[in-house]
Amino acid sequence: MQLNREELIKAYQGMCRIREFEDAVHEEFASGALPGFVHLYAGEEASAMGICLNLDDQDTIASTHRGHGHCIAKGCDSKGMMKELFGKKDGICGGKGGSMHIADLTKGMLGANGIVGGGPPLTCGAALTFKTKKTGNVAVCFLGDGASNQGTTAESINMASILKLPAIFVVEDNGYAEATSSDYSVGGNIVDRGKAYGLHAEKVDGTDFFAVHQAAKEAVERAKNNEGPTLLHVKLSRVYGHYEGDAITYRLDEETKDIKENKDPIKIFKRKVTESGLLEESQLEEIEKNIKKEIEEAVSESKEAKYPVESDLLTDVYVKY
Amino acid sequence: MSKKTFRESINEAIKQEMRRDENVIVLGEDVAGGAGTKGDQDAWGGPMAVTKGLAPEFGRERVIDTPITESAIIGTAAGAALTGLRPIADLMFVDFMGVCFDQIFNQAGKFRYMFGGKAVTPLTIRTMYGGGLRAASQHSQCLYPIFTHIPGLKVVIPSNPYDAKGLFVQAVRDDDPVVFFEHKMMYDDEGEVPDELYTIPFGEANFTREGKDVALISMGRTVNLCNQVADEIKKDNISCSVLDLRTLSPLDEDSILEAVEETGRVVIVDESSPRCNVATDISALISDKAFSSLKAPVKMITPPHTPVPFSPALEDLYLPSADNIKKTISNILN
Q: How far apart are CA B191 and CA B194, in angstroms?
């Protein structure tokens, strides 16, 4: 473990912030306070934080429909995000995007994405910008096991490979594409697919923040050293269903129990850092308390915030028309 | 000012913009041609040689031959536009949009709105459209109405080399995503084109003929058919105005309404398939906003509702013709 205390604290804060945010959204959605539909990232926190702690604001990520965790990990404001989910004018996208389109370009967050497989081509674009302008940055694409079967993903990893783009494709395999098992839907395996296109590809334990962080660190170094793109197959689990309201009848109760008890990346992180004496239990509890307060405020402020008005309907379609 | 073909006009626009702005790049299938071969490194310049000469001048870092992978081409261009480049992506034939439409209309076209006005996507997509080359059903469609339907996209369709250069330069400099339609039968058309850079603003239609009896409204290649008809029927003492829309999104509604008010009779000529096309859209606009100016029903000349046929005998029947336009004019005048 080469991370210093400050980095470890940042990692824990980020993972807690994602979990609190998603748990709050879970509750608010169930109560009927939230419009639309949402896909929660709880259980996958080590992936977003393990990757994004290796990036700065000039590096980009493209995300998925299950994007809240990526947004938070990349530095998007949790209160602005919550307001966005409530459809409020002060939301991070003015209430025009919602859960699946949260973006903050100043943080290098190129958008959650409502289209499965929508992000990989865009990632090639960001990476091409970095390569053309010689900025030394890296473009990361989060995608799911479902998106790994999309043609856009195959096209994009090929494009990244032949143009030697500074890109990293992070396939977050939570075991299910909607209600269909990835064991069923993925022919062959995801790592081999990456290798077949000439990428460095490896499988990573997505419940272990440190494993993800290390793999991402090496991938970023490869990209910055002009050694081409990487594919990481991150195996993890989602706590909740595909979307809120999903009864998850395709998953047995004992599997959900196992996920909560044995595959929770936050518990695993906490155990590792306290047992090895890197951080104190009391420190972590203090973080949990502060994050809880932050998210509670995010929810209450979002409820009180104003909706956009009629004049907002027609703006922001074009720069000039 | 010198005579240039439609092809040369766009080629010059791209070159001059690439010299002016190093953020302008070109990517697509065989935009140079020859990548990875031992042969000519500027083998094609696109299938119609429109981008010929770019790779030798600007290098392969800025003129990128891609695999045949339309989603990745358009998506790469969209992502690059979102992060600071000003890409010109080549979608070769517009018929191929079927394999990459998501990246155009769900991604590039919606970034700005979805992200609350914080994104700019200065992307130009060049594409070929239209019949006449005996290229059959999958290489001859117009499809511009589909792009016009999408809020967030701009749709440009020049009818002559002068407009092609000015509108293309505007497309490259524009901060919104633009789909630029080039009719595949027009590349050898000639016209006077200034050597220097200039822009033609979007949303400003152009009266290529002035007249008082009938207004012919059209776009792209069929504007030339309308011009030809207007010139030919002068001898019969019929005076036609011709309005070249130039851009379909934004649409110059004022000029359309002006054309209706001045003539009271309108014929819209549109090479795209007849259902939900530009002709029906303009007809609806006229019925909504200029009904009382009409002296005759609005007429639409379009192909029939069939795929584009291959046989020259059938394709000639399929496409709008001067005879068709003349007969229609004659009908609404009597």
A: 10
